Amino acid sequence: MSDLVPDGIDPAVLRQTLSLPHPQMRIVTYYLTARKDPEFDNAVVKTGEKIAEEIGMNRPLLSRTIPQLIKAGWLRLASRHGNIRYYGLGPRAEERNNVVPLRRTA
After folding, report:
1. Is residue 58 part of a domain?
2. How many whole angstroms separate alpha carbon 89 and alpha carbon 9?
3. 29: domain CATH number?
4. Whole-model pTM?
5. Is 3 inside any structural domain?
6. C-alpha span between 41 and 23 (Å, rounded)
7. How many folded domains does the chain comprise?
8. Domain range for residue 59?
9. CA angle (66, 17, 55) in 5-degree steps
10. How big is the chain by its Cα radius of gyration, in Å?
11. Is residue 105 part of a domain?
12. Residue 34 in 3-state DSSP?
């Protein structure tokens, strides 16, 4: 079973990630494409060490970058179990549906 979601990423959100510094862009892209666990408030339920390994980043850099992404609204603290924190997508990274339904006028 793959950890990646099939294809539900908003292209507008992906375009916004292009303006992020490279480490931040890698982390946000990972969180956009990783499988989320609804039982953990849609968090990516993996340790920072495992995530850093999967994206080819050292763990201290990942740990320093996540608070910046939380402050910018890309990530949010979704669940905490003991001293382990799990993060999910923040409001800036979630899909937006800007389609307004048409009304019949006559």
Report:
1. yes
2. 12
3. 1.10.10.10
4. 0.80
5. no
6. 25
7. 1
8. 11-89
9. 55
10. 16
11. no
12. strand
In angstroms, rounded to a whole number, what is the distance separating the alpha carbons of residues 102 and 80?
Answer: 43
Torsion, Cα of 9, 15, 17, 22 (10° steps): 120
Assess contact for 44 and 90: CB atoms under 8 A: no
CA distances from 58 to 11, 50, 53, 55, 62 (A): 28, 10, 7, 9, 7
| Burial status of residue 8 (CB atoms within 10 A of its CB: 0-12, 13-18, 19 or more) | exposed
Determine the length of the chain: 106
Write the CB contacts of 105 (distance below 8 Å, at least 6 apart in sequence).
none
Answer whether residue 1 is part of any domain. Answer: no
Instruction: Count the neighbouring beta carbons within 10 Å of the beta carbon of residue 74.
Output: 26
Tokens encoding 19: 């303006």
Residuewise pLDDT in 10s, the chain (106 residues) = 455 444 567 778 888 888 999 999 999 999 999 999 999 999 999 999 999 999 999 999 999 999 999 999 999 999 998 889 999 999 998 765 555 556 666 6
